[in-house]
């Protein structure tokens, strides 16, 4: 048997585990919490409660021979919590800045968040811009091309998403995972027991269970 391959019980020996802190920022009611819950739990709540301060969730993405573990901080969008934001994006390796495509003021607010991250967060932080509520495209006030052009100029990942329909939610986190440095941060033998979501299923659906299977 080749060295470094699977053992006879098919337990992988080479799976790397990389853990990253990811923060969500954006105006209130743009759907930050809904995006996270869709990604982590696979469901959408039409009457999602407003986040107070910040909420913490975790989820993993299986990418080739690497398990990317995201520690996700979902921050409150109310202005009175703005001063707390640096507590959550400090030390973050990735950020998703969210706006509502039906509300142009949230797009301008998103740009302000991007500038703040570029000025105060880690120089190597991966920033994604999410134009959320794409299911309301008939009420759109921010064109896709506008978000794309801004993101290209600012060096951001960009996708339009819908937490309600799950459009591009997994794809957004997968795109971020692909940008992360693949440095093993935990014992690789733990990978076989870590639950996560495999975003590389051929049917595009989340696969719950063992990432290393």
TrEMBL record:
<protein>
    <submittedName>
        <fullName>Ras-related protein Rab-5B-like</fullName>
    </submittedName>
</protein>
<dbReference type="InterPro" id="IPR005225">
    <property type="entry name" value="Small_GTP-bd"/>
</dbReference>
<keyword id="KW-0342">GTP-binding</keyword>
<dbReference type="InterPro" id="IPR001806">
    <property type="entry name" value="Small_GTPase"/>
</dbReference>
<dbReference type="Pfam" id="PF00071">
    <property type="entry name" value="Ras"/>
</dbReference>
<dbReference type="InterPro" id="IPR027417">
    <property type="entry name" value="P-loop_NTPase"/>
</dbReference>
<dbReference type="GO" id="GO:0005525">
    <property type="term" value="F:GTP binding"/>
</dbReference>
<keyword id="KW-0547">Nucleotide-binding</keyword>
<comment type="similarity">
    <text>Belongs to the small GTPase superfamily. Rab family.</text>
</comment>
<dbReference type="GO" id="GO:0003924">
    <property type="term" value="F:GTPase activity"/>
</dbReference>
